[in-house]
Amino acid sequence: MATASVATDVQLSELADDPYPVFRRLRDEDPVAWVPAAGRYLVTRHEDVLAVERDQRVFSSVEQDSLMNRAIGRTLLRQDGAAHKRLRAAAEGPVRPRAVKNEWLPAFQRNADALIDGFFERGSVDLFAEFAGPLAGANLGTILGLRSATPADIQRWSQAFIDGCGNYGDDPEVWTRCAAAVAEVDAAVDEALPFVRENPDSSVLSSMLHAEDPLTPEEIRTNVRIFIGGGVNEPRDAIGVATYALLTHPDQLADVVAGQIAWRTVFEEAVRWVSPIGMYPREVTERTTLDGRTLEAGDRIGVVISSANRDERVFERPDEFDTRRGSGAHLAFGGGPHFCLGTWVARVSIAEVALPTLFRRLPELTLPEPGAVRMAGWVFRGPLALDASWRT
What's domain 12-389's superfamily in CATH? Predict the structure, then answer.
């Protein structure tokens, strides 16, 4: 049951525009705050987020009437224990570090080069719309094994699912788009399954179908939806944020180009600074106390990763993008049993391919109007556009 909070006047529109001042206030004054607009307690301190992540018995991912369940079905992200382990085990082989390096990295590089080949001579594009998004869609389609789906299809489906999972305002138009995307994804999966049944390959689709404990077609369809939902926006937004950050911090960019700062460091700092997934839900299973707040069974909480990653108790000058910072472990990929399955795909596709390729192949890359770049969202957050130019 909700109790008094300093956050009763917080509006979702305020969070979508710029959540960080609100989160700072909550960390200082009410770190487990009841937010009526979100219909849940927001957990905003790094220490508390870790505590929630490590105790899935008390803080369950199996939330009743979950927006994610409504949007795309009951995926592995909304299951715990043995059920979660089974679904995860069936899909994780193709996204383990060695498989990503050996199997997918060359494909990621081909995808990145092909996109740049297509727009290089123009001298200017919206890198968010014409590089980051299409690259994320192409890479994901390759890994999943959806043979008939285009990068544009995958991007469109992903956005529909993301909007549905974050539809705390209950917009009916969002639900309509989400239902249409579910139908299209299911059709694409059903088209691909007969081929991988007869021709096993390295794809996630094949892995789920031929696992030691194979998933049913419906389980495959449902979990492909969540891979599409998270597998586009996260790398897309991380590419956009990292590119924007480097182009607005030329001293750090110079050190990266000179080899004094690793691309991997740029990536990790970018997802700490602006976490692509800002919040995800949990449900309390029994009466407990978290940072002085008594929570009852059935209470809903929002685990605010984006706030934890700017907690002053862990990070010095947390609102600054600083690739030279030497301490603090970010939580952009979550933690515990639900640690992000696509972590290594993101690290390789962005830190080893997207970013170095972009800055190597586009000479004198710049943002003509850096002040015009706008970021939005709090459940998911990233730039809306990234208009850039370079010397041809």
Answer: Cytochrome P450 (1.10.630.10)
Cα distances from 173 to residues 71, 72, 177, in angstroms, run 12, 15, 6
Other CB atoms within 10 Å distance of the CB of residue 179: 15
End-to-end CA distance of the chain: 61
Residues 242 and 239: their CA atoms lie apart, in Å, by 5
Res 201 pLDDT > 70: yes
Lookup: tokens for 158: 């992903």
Q: What is the pLDDT of residues 279-314, one digit of tens each?
A: 988 999 999 999 999 999 999 999 999 999 999 999
157 with 122: CB under 8 angstroms? no
Encoded tokens for 340: 């992000």
Torsion of CA 224, 215, 70, 12, to 10 degrees: -50
DSSP-assigned letters across all residues of 46-59: HHHHHHHHT-TTTE
250 Cβ contact list (under 8 Å, min separation 6): none
Q: Which residue has the tokens 């990234």?
A: 386
Q: Which two tokens stand for residue 303?
A: 């685990």
Task: Report the predicted TM-score, pTM, of the whole model to 2 decimal places.
Answer: 0.90
**Cβ of 108: how many Cβ atoms within 10 Å?**
24
